Amino acid sequence: MPKRAVILVGGRGSRLAPYTTVLPKPLMPIGDRAILDVVVRQLHGHGFDRLTMAVGYLGHLIEAVFGDGSAHDVSISYHKEEEPLGTAGPFATMEGLGDDHFLAMNGDILTCLDYGDFYDAHIQSGKAMTVAVHRRTVKADYGVLHLDGASGAVRGVTGYDEKPESHYTVSMGVYALAPQALAHIPARRFDIPDLVLALLEAGLEVGAYEYDGYWLDIGRHDDYEQAQRDYEELLPRLLPGEVAGPSNAQILE
User: Taking the model in full, what pTM does it have?
Assistant: First the structure.
């Protein structure tokens, strides 16, 4: 059977307002195409030919653009949310989802991750769920002081770090799930962090697949602008064989 992927495209994208008042975030343009167009082409290139889009806010526009997927050489179905179900809730009622392992991801991610390698590593691991993770460094904008435990008008300073950095392992918004994970998802609003905790509580294993290449979650204005700057250079790695068309700025000129 073709490998299956679920793309989560039902969010309102409020952090990218006012753009997302007229377009759902996955249809925002990157270079010469929509973010979601890049995602669908990448999935097809990595062997995922059966796609389900979990749509909500302005979902009719996404369906109008992608249709049945034949233009992208894939099969696309749509799971419509009457009310927001979170990032894991839609899995509980999707038809045929428990037949095999599947990949799930947010529809606004720009990355060079090989989804096929990630999926295969998940299956070989035997875990109920695998999360693609990325190491992020967050630098404070200010000097950070360490204070003693004394009280009073003037406390003692025990240390001083000038704009320190903190390192985190963060979710990339890309997941692979085994069929047994679905039994732990209720048919109500339920998010991926809830699912991870539910699986761990049930004694099931959750894995982390570390990826140190390019990854950008296009959720904020700064990230969207960065994606625009990176797109043309990244294109040979994002979509091998593709040629960049005119940028949005050139089109507007």
Answer: 0.86
